[in-house]
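User: Hey, quick favor. My workstation is busy. Could you predict this chain's structure for me?
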Amino acid sequence: MSGARKLRVAVVFGGRSAEHAISCVSAGSVLAALDPDRYEVVPVGITRNGRWVLTDGDPSRLAITGGVLPEVSAGTAVSLVGDPAGRGLAVLEAGQAIGRLTEVDVVFPVLHGSYGEDGTIQGLLEMSGLPYVGSGVFASAASMDKEFTKKLLTAAGIPQGDHVVLRDGTGALRADPDLLDEAARERLGLPVFVKPSRAGSSIGITKVTDWAQFTDAVATAAAIDPKVIVEASVPGREVECGVLAGVGGGLPEASLPAEIRLRSGTDWYDFDAKYLEDAVEFDVPADLTAAQTAAVQEMSRRAYLAMDCRGLARVDFFLTTDPATGVDRLVVNEVNTMPGFTPISMFPRMWAASGVSYPELVDRLVASALDGAGPIGADPTTG
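Assistant: No problem, here it is.
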């Protein structure tokens, strides 16, 4: 790219959510993958209390080392310029803007959880007139909220597991969470998974195997989000599939699926199993028949369109078998609009197995953000 101006990519990471550290790890991998001959990177960390700071962008500082999670703590204070004519960041001193830092061509918000994956930063970037990687405000917010993910997917004819939503805006849910009646308990059965409605990385989730555990489980989830989802366990294989916007605005493409298998002694895929322990094995690609693979890919594309996603998504499934008929059944668990990009994350690994390397994947996402590529095609609810 000799003589050509490099694209300025602001990689934004950290944030105010409980997934701050995982965002840092994901960002480290993205920063390492951005070709310095093509991109001028502006690494922007968001501290746990919401301050935006320019960091050195050193990927080694954003890795999990010896079980210690990384964190954004210091740097030059900056602020996004709200005027679309500004298209960049301003340096702050004592809370006052003292000058332009740089214009930005595109933002890569490698943020997980609230204040990043839930439509909030997407709205800020829309107001600022900056192109950005990933889904827009509505798709981000709806996909982050497990209740509305289930509603939209159900409306599109995509199977969901049985569940109950517990909500109380007054805070009584934390004080008296025994809100699930006997009929609901009988219908859901045991075990159930009690989850914050708007959180990720298995934070705040409890597997309940005895109803005596339920009150504490709801209190744990409600400490993260006042809306709580109680999900029936879906026995079966845990399968995931990545979706990318088609090149040049074409139809979305699905990766080869992968499977998560728990090692002996690991009860379920919780935070520690995901990031801190050698507790799981990944089959990339998954050991599926051609028909099963095609079904997972097709339902992934349908879920991506049903949620109005843009750029990328990871769709998580349970692959179950009807014991009476022996027929396979896919149940969508979640749709992630900014899946993990850590070295062990499934999204980049699935695309690598599908022939798209990590640097190529990042290039495609940046190009998709710049050319406005998004989901096109028939409305999946009408066929």
